[in-house]
Amino acid sequence: MGCKKVVWIWIIFYVIFSLYLYLFFSIKIFDDFAVYTAILLYIVFFVKEIRMPVVSVWLFGIGTLPHIIGMIPFSVNNELISLYHSSIFSGNYDIMTHFIGFIFFTIGFLYFYHHNQKSISKLTLFVLFFSLIGMGTSLEILEYLGYRLFGFGWGFLAFGQGDSDLIFGPWGDSITDSISNIVGIAVGFLIYYKWVYQKKKLGKKN
Q1: Interval 24-40 mean pLDDT
Q2: Who contacts 116 (Cβ-Cβ below 8 Å, separation ≥6)?
Q3: Distance (Å, rounded) from C-alpha 18 to C-alpha 110?
């Protein structure tokens, strides 16, 4: 299956899920998936120039699944809640979303880079590590800008459940999210190096 087909699979999935939340629960999160779709459409139109491997597209999409799963609403005591709500996971599901998501994003990013650059030096790995941290920081800034534009509600571009630490408030949430991103990136590096990179080295020897 080609890269463009995989991209369209994810776009269609996001559209269907957004419509599902809106039609059945009156939850508007079109802005969330508009961001994902814009990124994927960029891959579609510029895939030849950036030489994006199919594996990376799958991993990027899988990295968004924890957030999507967390957005699925269910009723508890006649109240519509999600996994992001404080009563679930003691309010820590957002941390899991950042941690698991960035593991997949990191592996996909490293696979993409290694696909285009056959060798990766230690200095390059160092730069890539901090570049991914910068992406995580940009995500926190995007969340804040989303709150300024859309106010309160569901989704990462609106301020809602999972956006405020139970003790330290929104400031604490941004810090714990950033720490979760860094830990996820570190784990992603370890997985890629131990599994994908070593596998490629063994393939070259054989």
Answers
A1: 68
A2: 50, 51
A3: 30
- DSSP-derived letter for residue 192 is I
Which residues constitute the domain of residue 93?
Answer: 58-205
Please report whether residue 38 resides in a domain.
no
- For residue 74, is it left (φ>0), alpha (ψ between -120 and 50) or beta? beta
Three-class SS of residue 76?
A: strand
DSSP code of residue 74: E
Asked whether the beta carbons of 150 and 104 are under 8 A apart, the reply is no
Mean pLDDT of 169-181: 76
Does residue 55 carry a pLDDT above 60? yes
Q: What is the pLDDT of residue 70?
A: 81
Give the three-class secondary structure for 72.
Answer: coil
pLDDT for res 206 = 46
In a domain, 17, yes or no: no
Residue 182 pLDDT greater than 60, yes or no: yes
